[in-house]
Amino acid sequence: MPHHTPAVSRRAVIGTIGAATAAVAVAPLSAAAAEAPAGRASQSGRPSAGQRVADIPRTRASSAAGEAATAVRTSFPIEYVGVSWTGPKRGASIRLHRPEGAAPADWQPLAAGCAGGPDGHEADPATAATALIAAGGALGFDLRLPDGATDVRSAAIDTVGGPSRQVTLPATTPMMFGRIEYLSRAAWGADETKRFKNGVENTPTAYYPLQTLTVHHTDGVNADPDPAATVRAIYEYHAITLDWGDIGYHFLIDEAGRIYEGRYSGTDGIPAHDSTGKVVTAFHTAGFNSGNLGIALLGTLVDQQPTDAARASLTALLAGLTLWHGLDPEAHVTFVNPVNGVTKPVDMISGHRDWLATDCPGATMYASLPALRADVAALDNLLH
C-alpha cells in the first residue's frame, strides 16, 4: 500500500498536531503532575539555566526464574508483580503476602495477556503469557501456574518507596507537542540506563513509515492514585523483566487525560518519531511492530469505558498523527511488516486483539473503536 511519509521539519510536525488538538478539549495537567519529579540524573547535582533539580524514588526490583519465581519474599513493599511463562494461560493464580503478622490474602485469578516483544523474537501468542499485577505494598507472593508452564519468570517491583536520586528537569514541565501537553520520558521518571545491557543498547532504535495505529489498555488498576509510578513499573517490567530493552508502547494515557511519552525515539524532541517523520519501532504487537504505533490507556477497560478525559486525549492524539501522516482513520488496509514481510488486513485504527489472541484493549473499549474512528475522522475533516 502507498504511504505518505513526508520529510518534514520539527516545526511542521508540531504545528500540524497542534492544529488538530486545538479543536479537542484535552485535559490539562494538574499542578501536581507538572511537578512530578523525574528525569535524567544530573551530573553536577546543580541545575543549569532553564533546568531544575527534583527527586524521584529509585526503582527497586527483585527477579527470579523457575521454581524460585513462584514463592518470593522481599525486604521492600511490592507495588507490582510481573510474571511471564510459556504454556497454558488459563488456571494461573497469585496470593499476596501482607506485612508480618497478617494472614496471606486469598488466592486470586491471574489474568494472562498476550505477549509483545521485538519483531523477529516473538513467541507463539497462544502460549506466551504475561501479567503485571498491582500488589499494594505486599511483602511477598506465591504463584500457582497451569500444568505444563515453563520458562517461568517473576519480578517484584517498587517504584514509589526506593531511595531518592537527584535528577534534572526542564524548568517547564510538561512538554508541548503542538498544543498537546505530554510528560516526556524524563518527566515520568524513565531511567535511561535500563535501555542498556552490558553497556550496549539492548534494542537499538529503528524507524519506518507509519502504516497503522493500535489501541491498547494496560489491564491494570482503575482509579490509579499514582499513574506515573505505574508507567515506571511497566517500563521496568518490559525493559528488564521481559528483556525488551524499553517500554513497549509509543504513548500511554492515564484517566486524567495525561499523555506519557513511551518508547525512546532519540533526542530531537519529537516523541515516537525521528526528525523525518518515521515512527520508531516499539514492542506492543509481536510480529507486527515496525510501522505500527501503539497507544495504551492505563487501567482495565473490560467492563467500563475510558474516562472522558482519557478518550479526549486519545482522540486528539490519533487525529494529530493521522492528519500529519496523511492516513485515513476509517480505512481498512493491509499492513506489511517491513522487517519480516508479514502481512495483516486490519483497520487503520485497530485494537490489540485485531492482531493477536488477546482481550486487549478490553471488551468495552474494543466495542467503541468504530465510534472512535469516526470521531478522529470528523476532527481530521474539520481541519482539512
TrEMBL record:
One Pfam family linked to the record: Amidase_2
Keywords in alphabetical order: Hydrolase, Signal
Similarity field: Belongs to the N-acetylmuramoyl-L-alanine amidase 2 family.
InterPro entries: Amidase/PGRP_sf (IPR036505), Amidase_domain (IPR002502), PGRP (IPR015510), PGRP_domain_met/bac (IPR006619), TAT_signal (IPR006311)
Protein name per the record: N-acetylmuramoyl-L-alanine amidase
Peptidoglycan recognition protein family domain residues: 180-340
Chain positions covered by the region annotation Disordered: 37-68
Known EC number: 3.5.1.28
Domain N-acetylmuramoyl-L-alanine amidase: 198-362
Catalytic EC class: hydrolase
Keyword set includes Signal: yes
Lineage per the UniProt record: Bacteria, Bacillati, Actinomycetota, Actinomycetes, Kitasatosporales
Keyword Protein biosynthesis: no
One GO molecular-function entry: N-acetylmuramoyl-L-alanine amidase activity
Organism: Kitasatospora herbaricolor
